[in-house]
Amino acid sequence: MRMAELSRTTGVPVPTIKYYLREGLLPAGERTRPNQANYDDSHVRRLRLVRALLDLAGMTIIRAREVLDAIDDPGTTSRQVLGTAQRSVAQSDGSVRVEDREWAMGALAEVADARGWHLHDRGHVLDSLIATLVAIRDVGQHILLARLEDYATVADQIAEVDVSCFAEATTLEEQVELATAGTALTDTLLANLRRIAQKNALPPDWP
């Protein structure tokens, strides 16, 4: 297909496709003439992934390129690609003080040890979690901190569902899409399901 048809098929404007080509997010098509190229279903799939990384997962062009480069590297394992994708999505907070970080790591260590979680190689994901815990403490929500173990239990259950979804994906592109855009979407899904569940969990005589 020509670029115009690729645009119609994916809904991505031609100027945007050209921009992705220049930035190395989309591989070049098969050149037929000096100013023309043909594209196939692999370009449709890659465009879908690029839009998911940028629009749904909120990645920058640089971060998205890192994920795509990992996918295209034949020596990269699925675990490594997923790790790259998670690091690209997670937002870390560099303003956390050393003493606050030590406090948060102490709180997390108990939960992690009980589950066999490994925290020290989680990078930006761990940094973001630490910043969140510090924020919860600083606004005085000690009731939430006391239930950290319970929240971790729920996280384990959600992770089992997530991993089962990854197992159903047949390509690295699908796995990355699930780990990035899929996670972003299910974060919103879970937040809304949680709010509905909260209302239904209240006793009938709750004031």
TrEMBL record:
Domain HTH merR-type, chain residue ranges per copy: 1-70
Pfam family, one: MerR_1
InterPro entries found in the cross-reference section: DNA-bd_dom_put_sf, MerR-type_HTH_dom, MerR_fam
SUPFAM superfamilies found in the cross-reference section: Putative DNA-binding domain
Superkingdom of the organism of origin: Bacteria
Ribonucleoprotein recorded as keyword: no
Keywords: DNA-binding
Keyword NADP set for record: no
Family annotation (PANTHER family): HTH-TYPE TRANSCRIPTIONAL REGULATOR ADHR (PTHR30204:SF98), REDOX-CYCLING DRUG-SENSING TRANSCRIPTIONAL ACTIVATOR SOXR (PTHR30204)
Name of the featured protein: MerR family transcriptional regulator
Species assigned in the record: Amycolatopsis ultiminotia
